[in-house]
């Protein structure tokens, strides 16, 4: 469970952590330019991912990178982290030309990175992952105790003192893994910390924690490169903004707080985007009950959840990460067995198992795209049709032409870049991979969509398109059950909202009757927030 | 430093090409070639496995090198086109039985498993179909028995693995021991001679100058290729092996499919049992010894990823042919089996090294991690 800033538990944790979280090297000078990139170029087969990037980062600032999905942000930071080698261009690190031949070299130079895609070793413990590659050692032996202590200290500072350092990473939920990879970046002595969409998997209050830590870091003169598709976050934490479009810097060093949103968006996309949610139908057009869930329970995850979704209705579930939302969705979908309760589709009780749910017309876009949804080495079109290829097949023979056409249609609607459906999914940017995951269930033929964080990592433009598609499907009579950590998304897209806290539904209301603060109060109220300001 | 995905090259050898293969209907060609035009340069050949096909080209290179070695060491023989043709047929015939087993093995490995029991299933099916009782039903009865035994044993493997949740390695290792034991007890450790001329003729005869065994291999390979690349079964195989959780959440019945994969491997073993029985005109419990290793090795050098999710039938076929060519090369030069095995071992290692090199970009971080944690 996440803890708010002024919680006693955190306070005691802070007592453990007298030392600063990350030690800035002694010779750090605030305001000095630590990193300067000129004309950086990086190509992949058939794609110019970086095509002349300029970037200047100063010590002690939060430098935000903005850009659409596939603009080259992650490629840029991977070049900085030594994962990729640039084809041409200069990297100037603390006034001197530098090349980082491998990730160790970059780390040694003082660049720590939180990657967009988790890069943890699942079968090692939390502490081992946090200190991977730079373990505390004496005489060749790893000093487990010291590592565990330091890890616990970092985790408490991140507001997650409850994650045991000895726990296997495999057994953590997605958000927990994100915390561990943050802990890993913070376990280094660094001058520059790069964060590639760290907030994508975090809930609202956790983002607060993250920002508090970023402020601590920058106060010591550490520079932070921060990537996010959420403009509100950039306004809140950022100092300067550099915008990338199609691998090029289209604007550099804009003030993060005062640059008008329209300006940022048009520099990112080359057009203006009305970042609005589609209108709700004015009349009550929702039909009969499609999904009825009664008394669904899984110990430790959620208890006694009852809900219904009508045809043509979008129901949103708001709640913190760890409030049991994803588990609930997976249980409804048959991927987990409930201990008690029933799931009915069209009035009929579903047999256990995903197969029965899919046959009854359900489709679920899971939370974790890499481990739960994608065949990374397979072409895009085969990933888009992974759940539906049987439908286009005749006598057991697949119809690749039809599949390509369908995938291409989705690729066009969701602005997939590059729009070549024969590419392996592995070569897509994070946001574009997410579009493939969600797109899989938008092909039609699904009666009930279960969407778990559907817009994770998706840029503003494509997000608006995705909302339109979801609303259009609802207008055709599809029921939608949406889980999102972004409260405005739930309130803006859904017709009806359920608020979950600690595995229980604590409030159900029409979306229009709730506002963001009410929902936030609800999700955080209770034992953990006692006495905390709303 | 190559940190991108392996640069694909356009090759004429493109067995899995959707656009090149005979399409089901004319519309498909139209759409596919249309895409080639609009989808940017070179996109027409990208498809089921750019890397796989590139590797196949490498295997053809290895094959060519082996032929050159043969021609250099025995120039007199290679000067005679008649001998060369017969030698090619001999190699293919040598490859045929293991080749059939390897097709089944390729499916199992792509599906994320491994089948160590193939050799034992061949032996059990061979012995069972040559018992006095079975032979009394004639050739048809024998063939049916061999196939049925293969499928049933494969199903047992499959059930143990997918519903009994046994690790494939353990389950099929146990089956290896058990099936050979059963074969020995059925045959009473005797060699059972096949008295069916129909069965015995399969290996002895040629049609239009080509041995029937080679036709069988060709048919199985073609069927395997079609199933893997053109059917929902093949698509499920790749999904189940590539990311079982994603497959499950997409509504694929992962367990049932895993079970079917082992049954398919068993079926291939049944076919191989008939071929081998025919070659020897007899069957015994020790036949098809170590076929599992030959089949796995061939699949691996053919580019099938041991962790599943990727592999090609054509690659596996080339793997089998390369091994058969090496055996042939050593035989015509009168060299020892021992030397031959050492060369085979070297080729397996080299192939796996190439595979790792190809996946370097993907696994770089992990590899680094492993090294550092090992220290
Ligand atoms: N390994 C790769 N092989 C081929 N192309 C790649 C590879 N990695 C990235 N690309 C391509 O490079 C471009 C930039 O990708 P990148 O991941 O940097 O985007 P991004 O700005 O981080 O997007 P997102 O917001 O979706 O994370 C994309 O077109 C992507 O398809
Ligand atoms: Mg990215």
TrEMBL record, chain B:
The keyword Acetylation does not apply. One of its GO terms (molecular function) is transmembrane transporter activity. Its main location: membrane. The keyword Acetylation does not apply. Residues 1-44 are annotated as: Disordered. InterPro entries: ABC_transp_permease. It comes from the Bacteria. It comes from Micromonospora arida. Residues 1-12 have a biased composition (Low complexity). The chain crosses the membrane at residues 53-72, 84-110, 116-134, 141-160, 166-186, 207-228, 259-278, 313-332. It is found in: Cell membrane. This is ABC transporter. One of its GO terms (cellular component) is plasma membrane. CDD domains: TM_PBP1_transp_AraH_like. It is a multi-pass membrane protein.
